[in-house]
Amino acid sequence: MECIANFFTYETTKSVVVKSWTIGIINRVVQLLIIAYFVGWVFLHEKAYQTRDTAIESSVMTKVKGFGVYNNRVMDVADYVTPAQGASVFCIITKFITTDNQVQGSCPEVRSSTFLLPACISMTGRCVNYNETFKTCEIRGWCPAEIDSVHYQPMLEAENFTIFIKNSIRFPLFNFTKGNLLPNITKEYIETCLFDPRTDIYCPIFRLGDVVRFAGQDFKTLADRGGVIGIKIGWVCDLDKSDDQCNPAYSFTRLDSVSAKTKVSPGYNFRYAKYFKKADGTEHRILLKAHAIRIDVLVYGNAGKFNMIPTLINIVAAFTSVGVGTVLCDIILLNFLKGAEQYKAKKFEEVATQGWVVGWQKSFLVQSTKTEAKSLMHSYIFSWLCMLSTAKHFKALLS
Q1: DSSP symbol at 264
Q2: What pLDDT digit, counting tens, does each position of 18-47 carry?
């Protein structure tokens, strides 16, 4: 019977005015902190009143210009840039190791060790003279074999090569498009400008040496070994403001920094070949091992615009969170201050109708004020956490 009586009960809040400086100060300080958090961080910094679009669509076109000299040979863009299509990822070759006139056949393998018979069995099975000093295994393939242990100086003129980047972006949620060639940029300006983080932050032309320096690298070392540099273009736009204030921000970093620290395979290199046919129909090729500075143009961003739904959700969450001051003050008031029992007696009161008293007089037990206080505090805390969790959940869905 007691369970039934407890089930059919109703709890409601009771307003008690407590004239205490301690509780009053704590209550107002907590409320001010919560309001400052929502106004300063949630609304002004995080712009929680906006709907955000992070699904940025982007296209990148690039063009490299400059001349260099390598092994007494003048090199232009067609010689040192690959691929030639002007994509967002391209390589500027700074050093070549060339193996000329390779043809299909059999020849000595290039090795630093002397003859080992078991190793040759997996080749042609023969051991042949590599030179007058030692023998190596004979191989079948493109001959003569590549010698990649020789050292050549890199093409240091590449430091003054320029990279032109044309980037177009779109935020599909708002159907907003923009490019890094800003409306105030003229043809005359493009022909003379170079990107500088202090004076020309919107110039789309970058000097290769500056890009390497901005990434915190030494150009001569990078040109000798090769490496991967990232040019990052960030678009973080507040579409509640003018379109003119949505502009790109450039930053630079080395993407293969882990590779630069290892002694096993430092830097970046690759091989490719140029094929020819002689008059008698024999195919031959020039094999090139290229050390290059690879440029990756990375585009990221997000845009935000005012929307009523997230605004209302966060306003409700703010007002709901202000109630945490009441919960904190109730805990202090009912458990830690002098006269706590008096406060409990004033705050909690049990009322039973006459019918209930007559019908359940023997089975209805009056619970202690302390138990009621703890139960109500738990109810306050649980309700507040539920409302806060719901507000965050709706915010996550909208974002």
Answers
A1: S
A2: 777 887 888 889 889 999 999 999 999 889
DSSP code at position 37: I
Q: Which of 135, 118, 294 is nearest to 211 (CA)?
A: 294
Q: What is the mean pLDDT of the chain?
A: 83
Helices within the chain (DSSP H only): 2-7, 21-36, 77-80, 117-121, 187-192, 208-214, 219-225, 257-261, 308-322, 324-335, 340-347, 354-359, 369-398
Assign 356 a pLDDT band (cuts: 50, 70, 90). very low
For 126, phi and psi rounded to 5 degrees? -115, 150
pLDDT above 70 (res 354): no
162 is in an annotated binding site: yes
Task: Write down the pTM of the prediction.
Answer: 0.75
Q: Which CATH class is domain 2-49+307-398?
A: mainly alpha
pLDDT tens, position by position, 173-216: 999 999 999 888 888 999 899 999 999 999 999 999 999 999 99
| Domains of the chain by residue range | 2-49+307-398, 57-305
Does the annotation flag 311 for ligand binding?
no
Is 206 annotated in a binding site? The answer is no
* Greatest extent of the chain over all pairs of C-alpha atoms, in Å: 120
Q: Is 133 left (phi over 0), alpha (psi -120 to 50) or beta?
A: alpha
96 is in an annotated binding site: no
Instruction: Give bridge partners of residue 288 from the DSSP assignment.
Output: 98, 272
| Residue the block writes with tokens 């293969």 | 256
Q: What is the CATH number of domain 57-305?
A: 2.60.490.10
271 annotated binding-site participant = yes
